[in-house]
Amino acid sequence: MKVLAIDGGGIRGLIPALVLEEIERRTGRGVAELFDLIAGTSTGAILACALTRPRAMSAARAAELYEQEGPEIFDPSLLKTVTSVGGLIDERYDARGLVTSLRRHLGDARLADATTGILISAYDLEARQALALLRDEDMSMVDAAHASSAAPTYFEPVRIGERTLIDGGVFAINPAALAYAEAGGELEVLASLGTGEQTRRLRFEQVKDWGALEWARPIIDVVFDGSADAVDGQLTRLIDDRYIRLQTRLDEASDALDDASPENLAALRREAEQLIAERSADIDRLCAALT
Questions:
Q1: Using one digit for the tens of pLDDT, what is the confidence trace for 277-288?
Q2: Euclidean distance between the first and the last CA atom of the chain, given in angstroms as a whole number
Q3: Comparing C-alpha atoms, which of 269, 222, 274 is closest to residue 246?
Q4: In the prediction, which pLDDT does 199 show?
Q5: What own/partner pairs with CB < 8 Å and gap ≥ 24 does 221-227 have?
Q6: Which residue among 33, 48, 159, 259 is buried most deeply as judged by most CB within 10 Å?
Q7: pLDDT at 83
Q8: Each residue of 13-70: pLDDT tens digit?
Q9: How far apart (Å, rounded) are the C-alpha atoms in residues 145 and 137?
Q10: What DSSP line would sit under 218-266, residue for residue?
Q11: Closest Cα to residue 221, out of 203, 245, 247, 197?
Q12: Do residues 252 and 197 touch, judged by C-beta distance below 8 A?
């Protein structure tokens, strides 16, 4: 079984989109044709749906949309600056920009319509349950991608039937372990794509006197980053050279989920291009395993 897992990371999803564009270029085939299962969390869930919907979007087109529509999703006009106090007492953004984009590009496609296996992570606040949404789930791709992207403090939870869903990143920002379990260990290759490692230091002098209010936003980044690293470490030990993790440090671009400024989008593209250049041999090895 050939498996792809795509991390969460907001606007930083541009990085795995560009890596996938390179894989499509080298193989001459679409992502959904190359993999038997595509798992995604948050921005990775959006990519998973876009790449597996009927009349699948190319990775190159997905990358373009991050650059073209990312600024609309994280538009300052949708920022609830006063009412949310920067996301401390209400969600930071109105989700209208996100939902409009999802509806425009995913249409009425449902998870059952996915052209290859799909796994979307989300967390149910009502049931207090971690979810892996698969093709047998009676849910639209728009709802699945929206729910998986509803990061606490950034967007409000998503109500779907009896469920109240939030970003799957609270338990699986890196969904590679979920994908590994779903594959039952029967792997030819597991490709895991990151969205860039956190690089901002939280120094002792800065955090030693923080309480709940000060920790509210930073703790999300800490949980996301730590869990992604933990999954990578576990799979590195569990799987041999069938596991390929393509991740990069964000030495130039911001690690913020919502920095969709032209300057940061350009920096994210450069980070992706550097990753592709530095890991070209691993990408060739992955493409060989896929074809």
A1: 999 999 999 999
A2: 12
A3: 274
A4: 75
A5: 221/255, 223/169, 223/170, 223/173, 224/8, 224/9, 224/169, 224/173, 224/198, 225/173, 225/197, 225/198, 227/169, 227/171, 227/172, 227/173, 227/174
A6: 48
A7: 47
A8: 999 999 999 999 999 999 999 999 999 999 999 999 999 999 999 999 999 999 999 9
A9: 13
A10: HHHHHHHHHHHHHHHHHHHHHS-TTEEEE--B-SSS---TT---HHHHH
A11: 197
A12: no
Q: What is the largest CA-CA distance in the chain?
A: 54
Q: What span, in angstroms and rounded, lies between the C-alpha atoms of 268 and 18?
A: 10
H or E stretch covering 190: strand 189-193
- Which two tokens mark 265? 């989008």
Phi and psi based region of residue 247 (left: phi greater than 0; alpha: psi -120 to 50; beta: remaining):
beta
Distance of CA 97 to the CA centre of its chain: 17
The residue ranges of the chain whose pLDDT is under 70 are 77-90
